[in-house]
Input
Amino acid sequence: MNHLKPRTVAELRRQHHSSQSMKTTRREFTTLAAAAVTTNLLGLKSPIRALGNKRRRAIVFDAFAIFDPNAIKLVAEELFEEKAVKLFDLWRAKQFEYQWLHTLMGTYADFWLCAEDSLTVVAKSLDLSLTAEKRDRLMNSYLNLQTWPEVSGVLRKLKNENLLLAFLSNATNKILQSNVKNVGISDLFEQVLSTDSLKTFKPNPKAYQLAVDALGLAKEEIVFVAFAGWDAAGAKAFGYPTFWMNRASLPTEQLGFFPDASGTNLTHLISSVKN
Output
């Protein structure tokens, strides 16, 4: 029996590019030129590009494109002072590493458990005294995040454009619902989706499919807004028109798939969606 071989990144990339028209219409050229001028005027490091002329019907957000994780860092600073920044950075990296390692091992631990386990090992590596009280304060900070400053205004403008809004996050439903309720944006979202319902994590294609199924739309009709560079690559590989909210002006991940547009905050998303 012949077995189908997994497609390589190069094969996927060739397939992606071959499906795109090689013609640039006059309207497309004008749109891109206008976006370039806007970028220069704003002094952006990450260019705003149009997300295409096809009608978009929904915007799906990663949680941290909406919620500012720096609140967690503030708690760390209160508890561990000069070692707080290192703790925060190592913890954030380690918890995503744990998610992917569990996936590769064929096991599953949700976002909360991965965060808790990784916090324990990182604190030990930094020789920090992580008491139960300190651990709980750090973990519970995930339940009390604030939005980025421009978020509320941007979301309401998108709703005025008759766009459906949804979350698609690796965070647990408890984390998502707690923060959505706390900041008063529950009425703006049609769906709050956690990959925990599938016992998997982005960038697994099954995780991205969750929003397609929940919204009942084609993937081409859904703009995905990523916070992390790897998430932008994963969403694009899946087939979403993708916007990367690259707040730290980081270099683009070299994974073979690149966001259609990017900006340093969500106001730039409006420019991309409207073009």
In short: The first helix runs from residue 9 to 18. The domain at 69-143 is CATH 1.10.150.240 (DNA polymerase; domain 1).
